[in-house]
Amino acid sequence: xxxxxxxxxxxxxxxxxxxxxxxxxxxxxxxxxxxxxxxxxxxxxxxxxxxxxxxxxxxxxxxxxxxxxxxxxxxxxxxxxxxxxxxxxxxxxxxxxxxxxxxxxxxxxxxxxxxxxxxxxxxxxxxxxxxxxxxxxxxxxxxxxxxxxxxxxxxxxxxxxxxxxxxxxxxxxxxxxxxxxxxxxxxxxxxxxxxxxxxxxxxxxxxxxxxxxxxxxxxxxxxxxxxxxxxxxxxxxxxxxxxxxxxxxxxxxxxxxxxxxxxxxxxxxxxxxxxxxxxxxxxxxxxxxxxxxxxxxxxxxxxxxxxxxxxxxxxxxxxxxxxxxxxxxxxxxxxxxxxxxxxxxxxxxxxxxxxxxxxxxxxxx
Length: 365
What we know:
Elements: H1 2-23, H2 25-38, H3 44-69, E1 73-78, E2 87-91, H4 98-107, E3 115-120, H5 129-136, E4 139-141, H6 149-161, E5 167-170, H7 182-194, H8 209-218, E6 224-232, H9 248-252, E7 258-267, H10 275-298, E8 312-315, H11 323-337, H12 340-363
Parallel strand pairs: 1-7, 2-5, 2-6, 3-4, 3-5
Antiparallel strand pairs: 1-8, 6-7
Helix pairs in contact: 2-3, 2-12, 3-4, 3-11, 5-12, 6-8
């Protein structure tokens, strides 16, 4: 009986946050949709300012669960920017939680509402979210020859024209690093060798297209690039081998006690503009990431493992920044579900919002 109770409590750590985050989605989309209609004849900067504020509210609720409720310890190394900037955020990719790690840094700069992502094209079909991410500034991209450079430049220019603050998150590897997927790692290393580039161990070979297009389109608008390296503590097995990073569900079940985040702030003047030189520069940045992760996972000195070089700052997120968002969105959703008309509107938002969203992104995104 005690074991059943423990297992029940463990599952609730994941189920309850998921239910709230998904359950409040129609409420959020209705609020955003109402503002979208009201602002149709206003200058785009007015729509963007309120949309960013709405996005900040929702993502603050996400962080309420992923940071405050899990109690995860956030350790920051390197450059610790405190003020808002227009930036491109380049990070290694190993988990679905990586998207939330970007939020964790952005909220500490009061820039959470300005976070926009370069996303895999398949994510545009997510119910409700897929369409909204595109509206908020997300850019869906396809790989290789199908990459639509013209469309990406057009979208970025529209945000520059609107004066939208930019915190653009890109994962140049293009897919998650999973030490158990040896074929993916081997193919990445083979590609690097064929290109005459150093072979990497704990990250995949970065691809240049999205990063180059983003920087080239916004070079006069940006302040800097943040080169971010993330390591999840507790991702080493009994034999000392790196294992898969936690999924969102595992993270919510408190399977990651600490996240180590190393930040290098690179001024835009120090980034090469030509694609051929930027390709080499980007790979060099990932060589630096690889060395940091080798130190973190493989150092022969036990005192140097499970941390990055240099001093760290234990950064704790105040409940004041996240709890109000949780109370607002959950309260509005509960209020809607208490009436028959509200319940019908709620269901219709899920159904018709998803259908209209999929139709929209199939045409626009």
